[in-house]
């Protein structure tokens, strides 16, 4: 299993249970790949952060007052 | 957003958007990669320059 496959499965694991073969493959890959271990930790951080945002525990900074929109503002 | 902020299950997202589970997985993966890159460049890296 390469890193591209492993990171894809690490992402998938956030949304569905992995099959036994997938889970084993990822675990083996993580044993030898520090970058993917870091990626897995980062995915955990993202989920935690968005969870706090969703629950209102982490308020967004106040938006800039809308007077004239910047010239390059896209919808 | 549907997944992380609204808490929808992927099966519901697929039904809502009319896409396959695989397509949904691809979209989720790309979104997470993009968010990770954005935070890394604009948030954590920016703190180093602050």
Task: Please outline the helices and strands.
The complex is a heterodimer of chains A (75) and B (50).
Chain A: H1 3-12, H2 20-32, H3 34-55
Chain B: H1 10-17, H2 21-49
Helix pairs in contact in B: 1-2
Description:
The complex is a heterodimer of chains A (75) and B (50). In chain A, helix 1 crosses helix 2 and helix 1 packs parallel to helix 3 (34-55). Chain A has three helices and no strands. The model of chain A is unreliable at 67-75 (pLDDT under 50). Chain A has helices at residues 3-12, 20-32, 34-55. With 75 residues, chain A is mostly helical. The longest helix of chain A has 22 residues, at 34-55. In chain A, 60% of the residues lie in helices and 0% in strands. Chain B is mostly helical and 50 residues long. Chain B contains two helices and no strands. In chain B, helix 1 packs across helix 2. The longest helix of chain B is centred in the last third of the chain and has 29 residues, at 21-49. Chain B is elongated, with a radius of gyration of 14 Å. The N and C termini of chain B lie far apart (29 Å). The model of chain B has no long low-confidence stretch (mean pLDDT 83). The A-B interface holds A 7-8, 11-12, 14-16, 39, 42-43, 46-47, 50-51, 53-54 and B 3-7, 10, 21, 24-25, 28-29, 32-33, 35-36, 39.
Please supply descriptive tags for the structure shown above:
heterodimer; A: 75 residues; mainly alpha; disordered C terminus; B: 50 residues; 74% helix; 0% strand; elongated
Number of helices of chain A: 3
Shape of chain A: elongated
The percentage of residues in β strands of chain B lies in: under 5%
Order of helices and strands of chain B: HH
Concise account of the structure shown:
The complex is a heterodimer of chains A (75) and B (50). With 75 residues, chain A is mainly α.
